[in-house]
Amino acid sequence: MILVAFFVLLFIVFALGFLYFWGINPGDITVYLTSDTSYTVPGAIMLMAVLLIGLLIGNLVHIASAFLLSFKGWKKGRDLRRGEEISTIYRSGVGRLLSGDLKKARTLLKKALDRDPRRVDSHLALASVALQEGNTQEGIDLLQKARKLDPKGIEVLFKLATTYEDQEQHPEAMAIYKELLASDADNRKAMRALRDIMSKLGQWDDALGLQKRILKATSAGPKVELEKQTMLQLRYEVARQALEQGELDQAIDTCRDIIKQDAACTPARVTLGDAYRQADRIADAVKVYQEGYRALQKSVFLARLEDLYINAEDPAALLAFYRSQMERDPQDLLLKLYLGRLCLRLEMVDEAMQHLTDVEATGIDFTKLHLLLAEGQRRRNRIDEAITEYQKALKIDSHLLLGFVCDACGAFFSEWHSRCPQCKSWDTLILPERKQIQEARIADYPQMIPHGAREAV
């Protein structure tokens, strides 16, 4: 009723306004539609007509705008419902993927992708399914499609690069990482991945250049020391490569600088000695090897010294170093072992056995020690003692047990176990030589061959 009264009141106001305008505007107005066509109407009617036409146009525009807005809202709501439905299917597929149900995951993710082929996350998840199934090419194709949809997407590019890397397609992986760095020059993850590939391919100069950028970008944080150590390692590899290429001065300078920064770097000390040796600076090489052993107690320095002096036919100088070093540290068992081996090589059997038995007396037990002791006893013509040492070296007991090895982790056991005590795998203990025995075939000889006569046949 109120609405009706409002419209009635509006009509009365409009009518009064019309009469008022007609009364004060008695003249007529001629309107020409063309040069030959015209209409003459009272001014009040013309004014009201224009007003009504304006109101009509305004209402039509309002109605059209409201309709368009309503249509957009309906479409947006429909798209939201459709997107939520696809997202639900996608989440279910990812859940199946994480639970290991690849078949169901593939079905759900394929359904999500069919409903919205432009979803990057669906491409990525379906690619993960394909890769876990072993369908590498399908996975790469899906990742390439995701890359076309999102050319700058970091997740897509990293996934594609790591997939190429896993497949040993290093040029393709390197190209992706370089593309990442082209858009984000300080992306340390991409730089590290690219550096590691370069290192794997032996591109040490390029890897070192990239490591300098990484170190510059990693000015603070827990990884700084690790990156500095990596820098030294790459510098060493460049020096080692220079040594292989005959660039001795570069190798020497770099190794010396590395040792100044990290005195515990064994490879740099060894390579520096090798470079001096190639440069025929024997005294410098000897000094480096000797100082390296005194500082780090690593057997490689003794091996290098022994090789150098034996080739120079100067074992007396090596013996002198061993003995002087032994006086400095009588408890150096590693030196005793090498000194015993050297004495054995020089037929100084008694002194060799003295040093070797000193090592054995500490409870140290390994194959090569027993072989050295056996050789010493053999040279003393103590055959029974030599046999005993050979048996220890070969781990032969009175029962001639063959032992068992875990087919999963390689651990050795004298007794069989239903479950490997080392890696906890079930039913994996086998005879160490089982595969070799299974693959062998008995030769079809025309007659029995006496033991020990096979070589003659």
What does this structure look like?
GO terms for molecular function: metal ion binding. Pfam families: TPR_19, Zn_ribbon_LapB. This is Tetratricopeptide repeat protein. Among the domains are: 329-396, Alpha Horseshoe (Serine Threonine Protein Phosphatase 5, Tetratricopeptide repeat), CATH 1.25.40; 400-439. A 3-stranded antiparallel sheet has the order 4-3-5, with no helix packed on it. The chain has a two-stranded antiparallel sheet with strand order 1-2. The mean pLDDT is 85. The protein has helices at residues 2-24, 43-99, 102-115, 120-133, 136-149, 154-166, 170-183, 188-200, 204-217, 224-244, 248-261, 266-278, 282-296, 299-311, 315-328, 333-345, 349-361, 367-379, 383-394, 434-439; strands spanning 28-32, 38-42, 404-406, 412-413, 429-430. The chain has 20 helices and 5 strands. It starts with a helix and ends in an 18-residue tail after the last helix. Helix 3 runs antiparallel to helix 4 (120-133), helix 10 packs antiparallel against helix 11 and helix 10 packs parallel to helix 12 (266-278). 71% of the residues lie in helices and 4% in strands. The protein has 457 residues and is mostly helical.
